[in-house]
Amino acid sequence: MNVVQADQSCEHCHGKGVRLSILKNNLKADVCGCFKCELCNNEGRLFREDEQGRSFMADCECQTLRKRVNMLTEAGLPGKYVRATLETYQPMNNTQKVALSRTKDFLSDFKNRPMDFMGSLIYMGNPGTGKTHLCVGVVKHLVMKLGIPCKFVDFFHLLSDIRQGYSEEKAEKSIIEPFVESRVLVIDELGKGKKGEWALDMLDQFISARYNAGNKVTLYTTNYKSELPKRKKSKMGNTTFVNTADGEYQKSYEKETLGEVVGERIFSRLSENSQFLELEGDDFRKIMMGRTS
Ligand SMILES: [Zn+2]
Ligand SMILES: [Zn+2]
Fold it and tell me: Are 279 and 124 in contact (CB under 8 A)?
């Protein structure tokens, strides 16, 4: 955007004109205080002339920035990913490199491909491998560079909001609609929490509605994998898992696959139009100590 006149030396936005902060655990975006639009003097509107030379009020070009900034706040990104972008993602191994490069391909195809060929991305792997970081990077890119509305939701939280809504007699529809209808949606932590019939039924409805709409793109993160780590005989003759980071085998995502958790029907729908990206690695939230993943 050529009208952006932000201060290159600004410590908040470094000349980007956008300031990110955290409000109630969510990421909040604002136009930075250093931003000055020379066309409209920060009014957001200005006089233009039509073909007959009559002047009329119109939105200034800088409104594009203002709209995208609002859209980014409304995406509902978790505040701890305030600094996460695809540029700040540091792959620790080949699987993470592949995930990053597939994510970039996905973005560069976004404008050019017909929506029904877009499909979805499913980021699978242990906590801390950067799945959510990559999804947040996608949302920031789509909103700020392309102006495409996106939403981010932790499915487990969404379910508890719906439950809460029942007790306040809020219609389930009004809670889930913004997420069902968003052109791009990130469903974080697919499969987390109790897997009762009701939860699976909600998930099924949710995925079906987006799938049937035909023009929706969904990104999922999940700790579950499409297959379990290979088993091998140990010297003691017992069957053990290999390829796991910390030797703890009690976690449910190491005992069940995504298909087992969400059920055949949902899994086959997911498989139909999704790319599965498996990220291996240790929990680098622990390794990086205090840095957001
Ligand atoms: Zn600034
Ligand atoms: Zn302006």
Answer: yes
Q: 9 C-alpha vs ligand 1 centroid, how far in Å?
A: 8
∠ CA 233-234-240, rounded to 5°: 70
State the ligand closest to the CA atom of 31. 1
Q: Which residues fall within 8 angstroms of residue 118, CB to CB, at 6 or more apart?
A: 109, 110, 217
Q: Which of 264, 267, 254, 260 is nearest to 223 (CA)?
A: 254
Q: How far is the CA of 132 from the centre of ligand 1 (A)?
A: 27
Helix and strand element counts for the chain (H, E)? 10, 11
What is the rounded end-to-end Cα distance, in angstroms, of the chain? 30
Q: Which residues pair with 7 in a beta bridge?
A: none
Distance, CA of 107 to CA of 122 (rounded, Å) = 15
| Distance from residue 39's CA to the centre of ligand 2 (Å) | 5
Interval between CA 87 and ligand 1 midpoint (Å): 20
- CA of 9 from ligand 2 middle (Å) equals 21
Give the whole-angstrom CA distance, residue 78 versus residue 57. 37
pLDDT tens readout for residues 173-229: 788 888 989 999 999 999 887 778 888 888 888 888 888 887 889 999 999 988 876
Domains and CATH numbers, the chain: 1-47+56-74 (no CATH), 80-288 (3.40.50.300)
pTM here? Answer: 0.84
- DSSP three-state, residue 171: coil
